[in-house]
Design goal:
Structural class: mainly alpha
Strand order of the largest sheet: 2-1-3-4-5-6
Number of strands: 6
Largest sheet: 6 strands, mixed
Radius of gyration: 25 Å
Distance between the termini: 54 Å
Helix content: 55-70%
Number of helices: 26
Amino acid sequence: MSDCRVLLQILKRCKTSLDSKTVAKTHARVIVLGYATYPSLLASLISAYAHCHQPRIAHHVFSRVMNLFNVNLVIESLVKSGECDIAKKMFDKTPVRDVVTWNTIIGGYVKNSRFLDALSFFRGMMSAEVEPDGFTFASVVTGCARLGSFCNAKWVHGLMVEKRVELNYILSAALVDMYAKCGRIDVSKRVFESVVRDHVSVWNAMINGLAVHGLALDATVVFSRMEVENVLPDSVTFVGILKACSHCGLVEVGREYFEMMQNRFFIQPQLEHYGTMVDLLGRAGYLEEAYSMVNVMSVEPDVVIWRSLLSACRIHGKKELGEFAIANISRLESGDFVLLSNMYCSFKNWHGAERVRQMMKKGGVRKKRGKSWIEFGNSIHQFNAADQSHAEMKAIYRVLEGLMQRAKLEGFTPLTDLVLMDVSEEEKEVNLSFHSEKLALAYGVLKSSPGTKIMISKNLRICQDCHNWIKIVSRILNREIIVRDRIRFHQFEGGICSCGDYW
């Protein structure tokens, strides 16, 4: 127990075993060996005591940290290991906080996908009259982007202008990315045209933003402008441009960029490039070519590549290749099972779908829960599938039922084959009716004025049933509805979607 790394491993095991006696012995050893000022060990001790239901000792350890520099390092170690709640408790106990303390907690929460909490900390920083710097805004802008919160994005950008924050390439790229991910590609373009564009990161942000909006041709125009403005593309640029081609099925254009990357710019393909090419070819139905690319890759294919191939097999009904792809995924997650099940359902192979369901049950795998959120009145309202927790749930369900009935009168038929459950057709239809994006849309209709735009964000890829339904609802209500899913933006208007049903 004289090695610092060994002590860290012991404390890590104590957190799962809840062995408070060993934590105390290790704590004593840390002091004897003179490691009591090591921030990583102190963070591990605090975390171990907290997990062992010894909050008073955890706070005592933290209180012994001698200076603010080490306090900041301890908080950083906690958020780096995902212990955000414990880090917050230590942060709350810190009597004096400088800009680094605030940056550490805000940045840590953003990296742990706790975006609303990160924005709350930022508001606290403003109230405490601690002046934010470029690092603060880089984190907060990223949080707004990931959340897709346009109101917060405008507020944060306004503060940057008010405080005359100098825009380096990191902040410029972050702003372009933020507005694109908040569904305002028009504002993203304006920011792009207004900032200094001498760094490739700014161009990458614009190309990626156009890609997720399905604006592949615009992305190729931006790429061409790079040469005019003497900015060399890098490997990230080509991931973005290939992604743009994939979202729009531009197979030949994608092939040209993949060749150009290697032969003109001498950039060797990495996993991300191969993955995007497999996705591009697979979506477009070139399954054999996609599989050939997997076989000739210069690097070992990872789980993302096999999933891309599996997804393409589901779309195009290639059962054998799909089964081969899933056999190469070492650790199956719920989404993999759903893809395989949907592939069997498309063949009307109910035995295969049932077998997948039994595999999930046996492995204790639960389908990942859909989550959608909508911004209204400067607040984010979140919905899970079949949610009952919202304060206005009764009114939301009334609106949803009305929309479902009107959609059916317009010819909408629920795709009950997509439901991986051994229940009646009627029960399957009910299950589809309460997907999170439908609840979020019903809330948007309930709270907004007729004719106004509704924007929804979702943590998973939108399912075909919801996609078909929202198309019809956009025509019925004569409203623009935007859904940002895990893959891209869908702009529904007049009964059609900007993706052209290709996503």
